[in-house]
């Protein structure tokens, strides 16, 4: 586990948002602060200066230019890595190294080394100031799976299926910022064309809080600026912080990209080009003396640089580019359905939302996670059906790490257990054992992964004998609410939906731990 000394972190940036996960479940009294929003100043290394030098020999009394060019400055590169899970290890100011200066004997300056900054999977990069960054090697692309792209770059995706939308540079250029008539209220989903949504999203992004959902209302105030209306439902930020947050977010020009795959890289600040050495000016090689050659080079520089006073502008390395970015870690869903294969997660997702995941009586029907939207009058939350967990998943058995990684990106957990798994001589294990194994798998993969608000869904209550198992489960698990449901018949669904809403909106904080389960 990472050191909990996160309290030492610099809070220079007012745009930094911090989520706190209690670790009391792990026997630690400290709280871990997860930094999921971060302001980054990146500066590419300056180019090295070119060298003005002439080599004289017995055969060439006048001297020939032999000053090498300066080296290019290093780039600042963001790299997607599963080894980091938030921005707490990042520094706000990142500089790449400058290029080496050129030298005589045609020696070219060394290239400044790049600065590679590792960011977690699911990082959304937003540009505040500077040039639009460019992808390197393994870029994030529009063709990636929507699941892999939490706020997909695919402009045609319905944002009702995604928690947020991302504006890529080409879309952003022609995205008009559309405002609603004063007093009117709309959800983003009401805007049919992508362009309209993009325009709204530019503004909406500017005023959204960390947990605003796509179903939240946008309204227009007298100054014709669009704002989210469901601010009361979020208690994450104080009034003052909220104003700061809005101020910062309003600076954002574009959502540039999302890094969603291990190894994806994005150059966010480019190194400056190296200056030219005298070797680049051969036509002055026939100077009467090296000194005159130097003067000629300087003269040429001043001519080529449009009469710039600084005669050495061509021989000096250029300055590396600078960008100011806001990095944000997006969650893929508010709720993650976690359970063993065949527990009924897909059926449940279909029952609580309009999603249509594949349902089958065999294990691992769900190979790709699906997301459903739960709409309430005042709120909309996203639920992810995560592929069935098995014992040893933390060692990458079954679908292993693929889905465990997805669980990291959910705010709350709904453990789905099969009440009938061990009934009538079936080979399954009782629900309380299922819960224990689920928690242990999460914890083995990453300590603290299960330490988030949770509830239990006791599915298949319709099966003969399931009522008795449910009573026993209630006796053994008392720390978290348990919702008995029959997903196929959609029984117990309204109560479960209320419970999920309560959990997501922070009205109830209950966490399931192994210690909280009475085992044999
Ligand atoms: N009797 C009964 N059967 C159910 C219920 N919910 C789901 N099932 C059945 O359980 C089986 C598994 O359902 P799924 O929804 O595919 O289970 P899953 O947890 O998504 O399975 P994986 O995709 O393997 O992770 C199917 O045959 C469903 O019809 C229920 O409430 N009662």
UniProtKB/TrEMBL annotation:
Q: What is the lineage of its organism?
A: Eukaryota, Viridiplantae, Streptophyta, Embryophyta, Tracheophyta
Q: Does the keyword Nucleotide-binding apply?
A: yes
List residues of the OBG-type G domain.
333-505
CDD domains associated with the record: Obg
Name the PANTHER family for this protein.
Answer: DEVELOPMENTALLY REGULATED GTP-BINDING PROTEIN-RELATED, MITOCHONDRIAL RIBOSOME-ASSOCIATED GTPASE 2
The answer to whether UniProt assigns keyword GTP-binding to this entry is yes
The record's section on InterPro entries has: G_OBG, GTP-bd, GTP-bd_Obg/CgtA, GTP1_OBG_dom, GTP1_OBG_dom_sf, OBG_GTPase, P-loop_NTPase
**Species this protein is from:** Dillenia turbinata
Gene3D superfamilies documented for this protein: GTP1/OBG domain, P-loop containing nucleotide triphosphate hydrolases
Family under the similarity heading: Belongs to the TRAFAC class OBG-HflX-like GTPase superfamily. OBG GTPase family.
Annotated ranges, domain Obg: 32-332
Family matches, as SUPFAM superfamilies:
Obg GTP-binding protein N-terminal domain, P-loop containing nucleoside triphosphate hydrolases
Keywords, sorted A to Z: GTP-binding, Nucleotide-binding
* One Pfam family matching this protein: MMR_HSR1
For this UniProt entry, the molecular function terms from Gene Ontology, in alphabetical order, are: GTP binding; GTPase activity; magnesium ion binding
Name of the protein in its database record: GTP binding domain
Q: One GO cellular component from the entry?
A: mitochondrion
Example GO biological process: ribosome biogenesis
